[in-house]
Each structure stands twice: as C-alpha cells, then as structure tokens.
Amino acid sequence: MLTCHQVAEGATEYMEGAAPPMRRLGVWAHLRVCRNCREYLRQLSRTIGLARRALVPPPAPEVEDGLAAIFAAQGRPGAAE
Amino acid sequence: MRRNRGGIGVAPQGSYQAGAEEAATLARLRAGDQAAFRTLVRERHGRLLRLAGAFCRNRASAEEVVQETWLAVITGLHGFSGEAPLAAWINGILVNKAKTRAVRDGRMVNFSDLARDEGEGDAFEPERFLPDGHWAEQHRPWDALTPEREAGDRQLLAGVGEALEKLPPAQRAVVLLRDVEGLESPAICKALGISEANLRVLLHRARVKLRDAADRMVRG
C-alpha cells in the first residue's frame, strides 16, 4: 500500500495520466480508503481552476490606445498585409 | 482525476474548429473592428505580459516581446487560418518571439538548468508527514469556496495571481503554459527545452505551492 507521502508526491503524475499502470492502480487503491488524500487531490484539482481564473492587471490605457492605433493603421487601404 | 483538455496548444490541433463566438470575433478582427481588437487586448495583454515574464529576465524585455507579439498578431490576422484557438495562436507567437529575443540578447533563460535546480529534493517539507508516511495535517474541505466565489471573488483571484508571480521562474512558466493557458505537455517541453519528467516535477511543485496559498486564502 502506498503511503500518503508517496501519493502526494505522485499526485500530478497521476492527475496528468502519466503514472505507470501499477502506480496508477496503487494511487487509486489508496484514494479509495484515504479521505485526507482524496481531499488533497480535490484541492489540487480546484487550484488549477483558480489558477486559470487568476486576475491579471488590465493594460494601461496608453498601451491599449497605442495598439488600437496600430491596428487601425494596418486596416487602412494601402496598408501592408 | 485525469484532465483532458484537447484542442488547445501552440501546435495546430488537427481537429480544432472554431466555435461560433470565436469565428465571429475573428471575422470582426479581420474587418478591422476596433472594439473587437480592444476587447482582445484587454483580455490577453496582461496574460501575455505574465507569460513573457517567465521567459525574460526583466520587465522591459517582457514588454517589448509583448509589443512585438501584438504587431505580429495585427499583421498576421488575415493569414491566420483558424486551425487553432486564437489565444493559442497568439501564445505561440509570444513564445517564439520571447525565445528569439532572449537568444539574441544573450539572456535566454535555461529552463533545463532551472528545472534541475528547482526540482531538487522533495516537494513537501518533511514535517508535513509523520514518520510512517501519513499526513501530519488534516485537509479540511474547501466548503467556503463556493462556485460563485471561485468564479467571481476578485480578492481571491487576485491573490492567486500574486501567488503565481511569486513562483520560481521555471515553475511559473510550466504552470502558466499548462494550467493557465492549457497547452499540451509535448508543446511545453518543446517550447522550454525540458523533458516530460522535468515538466511534471516543476508542475507538481508549482501546484503544491499554489494549493497551499489558495488554502490559506480560502480559509481567510
């Protein structure tokens, strides 16, 4: 039986589907009986969702305006493709 | 637990077909629609800057790489065939620009070396486990993290963004490319010049740190 430490160390390999078959089975069997590890892996999984939604600062107005001006110039007749 | 998020990657995905919304956005951009372009800039600029920051050694370089990326996007829109999602196409341009730029400046971040340095030892502090290998801590469920909070708690999501920024460079790069931008592992390994094993070690360390930061914030 794998220990919690082994399951925790191999959590990403397991979640990414990259664990060898016997290891995968071992993690699966451990998770069947270990609520603490199940909760930890659930939290790791939810963390990915949080990371995907993590906020980033919006562009400065002058940066947005500058890019919009380049975009407008590119769209004018005669602008290089 | 296995996640399958097909269709997103730097390399064109054979079976990808743009949805109605993306196709409409592309059509508006190609028609020179200013509002559509500004929306794209607002959605992508900060993320591009954050991604460039993982490749470049300073903020000024990252900003220049992002600027070059936008210029390439503007000039390349009409040639873009929509064989990959728009965001993945833009990310691919950025990664290529960042690598070219870093090599030219002699400031290429060597991810293989970083992977070795950042991947040494255990992902967990020894005190987190008992001598018999059981957790020394109980993971209480994140009941406070409701779906509404997960999607719209600006303080929490800004905090996660700050935690991302604090990760060591190679860990930051892989978690941004894999978990935030959704690239497939082979594309990331190719972009960073690291092995799949390196990738998983770095990704794991990043996720462990982010989960710990999120745990503190969720419990407030």
Mean pLDDT of chain B: 86
Oligomer: heterodimer
Anisotropy-based shape of chain A: elongated
Helix content of chain B: 55-70%
**Element-by-element helix/strand order of chain A:** HHHHH
Can you summarize the main beta sheet of chain A?
none
- Looking at the overall shape, the CATH architecture of the largest domain in chain B is Orthogonal Bundle
Strand elements of chain A, count:
0
Q: CATH superfamily membership of the largest domain in chain B, which one?
A: Winged helix-like DNA-binding domain superfamily/Winged helix DNA-binding domain
The helix-and-strand class of chain A reads mainly alpha
CATH topology of the largest domain in chain B: Arc Repressor Mutant, subunit A
| Number of DSSP strand runs of chain B | 0
Low-confidence stretches of chain B: 1-13
What's the number of structural domains of chain B? 2
Give the CATH level 1 class of chain A: Mainly Alpha
